[in-house]
Amino acid sequence: xxxxxxxxxxxxxxxxxxxxxxxxxxxxxxxxxxxxxxxxxxxxxxxxxxxxxxxxxxxxxxxxxxxxxxxxxxxxxxxxxxxxxxxxxxxxxxxxxxxxxxxxxxxxxxxxxxxxxxxxxxxxxxxxxxxxxxxxxxxxxxxxxxxxxxxxxxxxxxxxxxxxxxxxxxxxxxxxxxxxxxxxxxxxxxxxxxxxxxxxxxxxxxxxxxxxxxxxxxxxxxxxxxxxxxxxxxxxxxxxxxxxxxxxxxxxxxxxxxxxxxxxxxxxxxxxxxxxx
Length: 277
Known about the structure:
Layout: H1 2-36, H2 38-45, E1 47-52, E2 60-61, E3 67-68, H3 70-82, E4 85-90, H4 96-101, E5 107-108, H5 116-119, E6 123-124, E7 129-131, E8 133-138, E9 157-161, H6 165-173, E10 178-182, H7 185-193, E11 199-203, H8 206-213, E12 218-219, E13 229-231, E14 234-235, H9 240-256, H10 258-267
Membrane topology: Multi-pass membrane protein
Organism: Desulfovibrio gilichinskyi
GO cellular component, one term: membrane
């Protein structure tokens, strides 16, 4: 009995030591994660660096050369609630994720659709908005079409923005069409206005805005969007603190109705159009 009592006592001591060590290690790991969080870095530097690309009305330049748009409002409110300054870093869309991963900025706020492929490289917040893909067509190059099927053939040229979910939507819904991919939104629109492509696929409300601006040249073949996709903030992997803050920020601003109000201003009204050329 004495031997077994000694063995049991020793085992208990070992288990206790392991348990304490594990708790200390876990606590230390949590502290290290918190200290390494982008959130802590932003607080220390007192600046939120935002990566984005220009898409009307998500982000664009006004007549004075200043950036305005839905995502600009979102980014400014986020920085304000964090109590820090904001620095906008315009970046080409097809290189925006690599730029985030190399630390060029802290977060992507640019109407980025949440997709499994992107999620392999970055972490996404909860959706803070939803958008859909729409189609705008040329009256001269593709007159009187009223369905996606009418554009799904090898003779049809379709303009899309390179690296966007519009490109993916075109591949899924118009697999037989000839896709022309542009890194610049203005170039993809100009190709449509020149009648060199039959249609342009882009996220709402750009197609509707173009149809209103150029009624003699363009028209909307469909009554509404043909996809629906969630939009989220993109951050580097391994940063639960920053992701937690962003998700809670989304919940709070949604509960206030602030996000919906800004979305309605930029996407469901034309009050801002006089601000841009």
